[in-house]
Amino acid sequence: MDITRSGSQLSGKGPAEHFTGNVRIDPLFEAPDPASAQHLPSYIERPSDAASIFAIWPGTGVPPGSEKWTWHEQTMQVPMFGSTAPTTMVRNVVIPTVTIFKPAAGTANGTSLIVAPGGAFRFLMMDAEGYDIARWLTQLGVTAFVLRYRVAHMPENDADMLAFMQNLLNILPHQSRTEEAPPVGDEAAEAARTWAEEDGRQAIRFVRQHAKEWGLDPNRIGIAGFSAGGGIVMGTVMQHDAQSKPDFAAGIYPGYTTATPVPADAPPLFVAIADDDMLVAPISAARLYEAWHKAGKPVELHIFARGYHGFGMKKQNLPTDSWIDLFKNWLAAQDYLSPAGGG
Question: Does this model's pTM top 0.90?
Answer without folding.
Answer: no
